[in-house]
TrEMBL record, chain A:
Protein family per UniProt: Belongs to the binding-protein-dependent transport system permease family. CysTW subfamily.
This protein's name: Phosphate transport system permease protein
GO cellular component: plasma membrane
Pfam assignment, any one: BPD_transp_1
Bilayer disposition of the protein: Multi-pass membrane protein
GO molecular function: phosphate transmembrane transporter activity
Annotated ABC transmembrane type-1 domain residues: 72-283
Keywords: Cell membrane, Membrane, Phosphate transport, Transmembrane, Transmembrane helix, Transport
Coiled coil: none
UniProtKB/TrEMBL annotation, chain B:
Tree of life domain: Bacteria
Segments forming domain ABC transporter: 1-248
GO molecular function term, any single one: phosphate transmembrane transporter activity
Name used for this protein in its record: Phosphate transport ATP-binding protein PstB
PANTHER family: ABC TRANSPORTER I FAMILY MEMBER 17
Key words of the record: ATP-binding, Nucleotide-binding, Phosphate transport, Transport
Amino acid sequence: MQLRARERIDHSVKLLVKTTGFLVIAILGGIFFMLLWNTAAFFLKIKPMDFITGTQWNPSGNPATYGILPLLVSTCLVTLGAMVIAIPLGIGTASFLSEYAGKRLKNILKPIIEMLAAVPSVAIGFLGIVILGPGIAQLTGQPNGLNALNGAILLAVMALPTIITVAEDALHGVPHMYKEASYAVGASKWKTLIYVTIPAAAPGILAAVMLGVGRAIGETMTVLMATGNASAFPKGFFNSVRTITATIAIEMGEVPYQTTHYYSLFAIAAVLFLITLAVNLLGEHYVNKFRKYHSA
Amino acid sequence: MNKDDIKLSASSVNLWFGNKQVLKNINVSFPKNQITALIGPSGCGKSTLLRCFNRMHDLSPDARIEGKFLLEQQDLYENDLSVTQVRSRIGMVFQKANPFPKSIYENINYGLKINDVPKEKRQSIIENALKESYIWEEVKDEMQKPATRLSGGQQQRLCIARAVSLRPEVILMDEPCSALDPLSTLKIEELIVKLKKDYTIIIVTHNMQQAQRVADKTVFMYLGEIIEEGDTKTLFSDPKNDLTANYVKGHFG
């Protein structure tokens, strides 16, 4: 009797975890399907070529235009800027923590850096409006500092904790024997870091960068607050830009249900989805490529 | 022993890790172009002593070293001597083969690059080092292959080639065969014996047969002290100290 009761519990627990597992897949599939369905509805009304090559996003204009290019360029500009700032800073900090900092300093610094990730994005956006914006305006002589550069810096700050933590783990995980081998042929600590430790940790560092990119591309609130949201085609870092995420957030609340405009927001969300998918696949590809040197 | 024949020596060496004294009053010398084996039970300090000579302990902040280490007349711990210079004259091969996660070619090229060997000379040096380590025939057609794909024995010979490529005067070997099968071990031992005409070799080993097969001189250590040293044959056949006798006969260790 006891055995059967035990088996029953065992069986129901198995069923439960199975359900939760499938639920996640179902949710992901549901989101994907919803995006696809509404995107298809959009393309029934607007020609895909007009969507892809159009240089104007003005759904409430007359005639309404649905060119994704300005939004796409804005997103790429802000993300690229963020990565240019965050990657060297992140890898540098991770290297310092892993190779140079003493145990005590590391134990103090790591939690502080991780705490940076806990700051709500809306608070960081606030920082962009109140401090960074006026600062940039003053330094560059612009009328206001709400532009792509502002967003890029804030996104860099937001991506840093992820990049540092993951990259530091990767560097720390490099077997000590590689470093010893390098020291034994006369390499300095610095050269060992550049030529042995960082290349050996490359898959992990790449994963860190990809996570950072993912964070930056998908971030909404900060860029919404800090980049000015002008829908004109961006010309550079000192232009006000409007990213895909910010556009969706701004317009979704006001758009009439099931209009072309409504569907168009799903279409740009689908593009965003494709980009993050591509980033992840690319990251995975490189991770595998580097991994072959590690498998004995 | 004639003074000119001594390549490497340590005198009055004490070493602590934190509060724990690991080496106690070590006085030892290593003859030129000979193989010296350091034997003794685990934790007796033989690897620690070995690593003093190429200053590997520089990297552990809690290590404190006293005493004098000489490579011929050169004080290895002299203030204005860079550790890079020391390590280019004293090479090292580790217990577990540790090729870099790079190609076979790059594994040797790295050390040359670090030591500023001009590019045009490297190809022939790499080839010679691989030939000298008897691995050339096995890898010459796949120099771009990741070194980690080689077998354990091949990896260790590659590591020896890496050490040899810098033309050091001394090669330190820290249990180079402990992770290898008997056949690979045999190959490495043959290689070690062949290398002795050009290099002074110190080998730490747990394997007493290995010490007898390759070493000219053997040093027996126990709990951080040198108990006995001498000609390998004599030390094994006629040990003066009871501890040595018990160890070489396999009563403990």
